[in-house]
Structures are given as structure tokens and as C-alpha cells.
Amino acid sequence: MKKGEFYKGLKHGEGRLIDLVRGIEFEGSYFNNKRHDYGIEKLLGVQEYMGYFKDGKKNGHGKIIYAAGSVREYEGAFEDDKKHGEGIEINQFGNQCLVKYWKDSLISSAVLKKNKLPEVLIPESKSEDKEFYTFA
Q1: Which of 14, 33, 55, 78 is most buried (most C-beta within 10 Å)?
Q2: Strand order through the sheet with 71-79
Q3: Domains of the chain: which residue ranges?
Q4: How many CB atoms lie within 10 A of CB 107?
């Protein structure tokens, strides 16, 4: 389903595209039938990207939220549909890392904020409970 502005039969201006076959939803700007400027792209059940596009590709500042995996969020620089430059990643434990990418390849990472894991409380045994663990 396509809904939006067209120019000479091409998507041009603000619009929304839902492709149920490929599981893609996009809402944002188009220029000559390509995603351009700010938009939100959802790959259903996989990830959601909010940020900038140029010539149909992620380009500039953006944020990806992943549905699963060790990295849950990335916010930072993109170039030609790839993470490229500095950004912040949040992993499945909530730890925040400053990362640098070169054409989608991680080149450095440093922990900025480590999320504290909840403490597991183990009850202390009581002397009167010792009978419970003995066998006849």
C-alpha cells in the first residue's frame, strides 16, 4: 500500500509505504522515488530505524532498535546504509558503549555506563532448619 505525494509517477515528498510481503513499513520523505531526508523504517519483527536517508540509504544521524540479539540499540552515524563513525550502543544487559564503526565493521568500543545486575539473595541457613536436610 502506498500513500503519499507523487511527481511524474514517482514517490516524491511525504509518504507512507507498507509492503506486507517483505515485512517493511516506511514513513517519511521521498525524492525521485528514493527515501530522502528524515524517515522511519520498520522491518517487522527485526528492527526499527529512525533517522536520515540520502538516495534511498541510511545516511547521517540515526537510531536502530533491534528486536533481538546482543546489541539492542545503536544511535550514531550512518553512511551508505552502514554504521560509519561514532555512536552509542546499548546491549541486552543495558550497558552503554561508545563505539566507532568503519563501513559496518566495529573498530573500537569503550563502556560508558555499566548496568548493575540485580543481586540474587541467598537465604542464610538457620540452625533449627538442619533437621530438614537430614535423611534417615
Answers
A1: 78
A2: 2-7, 10-19, 24-31, 34-43, 47-54, 57-66, 71-79, 82-91, 96-102, 105-113
A3: 2-116
A4: 9
Sort strands 34-43 and 82-91 into parallel, antiparallel or unpaired.
unpaired
pLDDT tens digits along 57-82: 999 999 999 999 999 999 999 999 99
Grid coordinates belonging to 118: 540485580
Report whether CATH 3.10.450.70 matches the domain 2-116.
no
Q: Is the pTM of this model over 0.85?
A: no
With beta carbons less than 8 A apart as the criterion, state whether 40 and 28 touch.
yes
Cα(127)–Cα(63) distance, integer angstroms: 56
The Cα 63–Cα 53 span in angstroms is 12
